């Protein structure tokens, strides 16, 4: 049994938190707080309530930088109220399905370097702008890792110039 220093009640030792940072007294196996668990919880709640009253959450003010950014976004949205058709959800879903089928066809293995641990991209062998009829054809796709895919597009751009 131990007496709480705050409420003055005598309670069993199990009603006190153990504190490892205090020195142990000769008769005790572990050091205990001088206040019981109920008093510690009540003090913690009171401190938290005081903190909320004294330090309310800060309200962010709009700086000129933020105001200009919002104006630019609003101006852009006025010119382009709807996204272009290529970003249509149905088309993008079809592209994703095509990409998954191409990756599964090649077992998620890069056809250029043979790596299988990296993230893979599906690549159109014949570009869609050259032959739109082959856009959804699985045989027109190949599986490349991100690195090889990037290198390939850099090479293709250099050839166009």
Structural summary, described in words:
The chain is of the alpha+beta class and 161 residues long. It folds into 2 domains: 53 residues, no CATH class; 76 residues. 41% of the residues lie in helices and 14% in strands. The chain contains 4 helices and 6 strands. The strands form 3 sheets. Strands 1-2 form a two-stranded antiparallel ribbon. It starts with a strand and ends with a helix. The mean pLDDT is 81.
Task: Give me some keywords for this one.
single chain, 161 residues, alpha+beta, 2 domains, two-stranded antiparallel ribbon, two-stranded antiparallel sheet
Compile the SSE list and pairings.
Elements (H helix, E strand, L loop, with lengths): L1 E2 L6 E2 L4 E3 L13 E5 H18 L9 H16 L9 H17 L14 E5 L16 E5 H15 L1
Antiparallel strand pairs: 1-2, 3-4, 5-6
Computed Rg? 33 Å
Distance from first to last alpha carbon: 88 Å
The count of helical stretches stands at: 4
Number of domains: 2
How many beta strands in the DSSP annotation? 6
Principal-axes shape call: elongated
Summarize the biggest pleated sheet: 2 strands, antiparallel
H-E order: EEEEHHHEEH
Residue share in β-strands: 5-15%
Question: Would you tell me the structural class of the helices and strands?
Answer: alpha+beta
Helix content: 40-55%
Question: Quick check: average pLDDT?
Answer: 81
- Strand arrangement within the widest β-sheet reads 1-2
Low-confidence residue ranges: none
How would you sum up this structure in a few lines?
41% of the residues lie in helices and 14% in strands. The model has no long low-confidence stretch (mean pLDDT 81).
